[in-house]
Amino acid sequence: MTNPLPAEALEQRAAEQRRRLHDSVAELRSAVRERLDVKRTAREHFWPVASVVSLAMLLLGYGMASIFSGD
Q1: Long-range contacts of 55-60 (CB under 8 A, 24+ apart)
Q2: Which three-class secondary structure string do you get for the chain?
Q3: What tens digit of pLDDT does each residue of 38-66 get?
Q4: Does residue 52 sit in the same domain as residue 71?
Q5: How many distinct structural domains can be found in the chain?
Q6: In whole angstroms, how large is the CA radius of gyration of the chain?
Q7: Do 9 and 30 sit in the same domain of this protein?
Q8: Which domain covers residue 71, as residue numbers?
């Protein structure tokens, strides 16, 4: 059984597939790095996070005050 494609063509296809795979991995890495950028995410969502934290601290303070006030 002989292979209808010459060795050079197979090598070129393999090289192209490796290049595409490398590009896909590089793109995935940059996307993950961008998604996990804590500073950028904190800047983008500062006010909603600050609001939730403020509300949580208000409720915690109210709860602690009721414990120590004896009501």
Answers
A1: none
A2: CCCCCCHHHHHHHHHHHHHHHHHHHHHHHHHHHHHCCHHHHHHHCHHHHHHHHHHHHHHHHHHHHHHHHCC
A3: 899 889 999 999 999 999 999 999 999 98
A4: yes
A5: 2
A6: 29
A7: yes
A8: 45-71
CA-CA-CA-CA torsion sign (34, 37, 39, 45): positive
Q: Are 34 and 26 contacting, i.e. CB atoms less than 8 angstroms apart? A: no
Q: What is the Cα–Cα distance from 5 to 14, expressed in whole angstroms? A: 13
Same domain, 26 and 57: no
Model pTM? 0.52
Specify the long-range contacts of residues 27-32, CB closer than 8 Å, at least 24 apart.
Answer: none
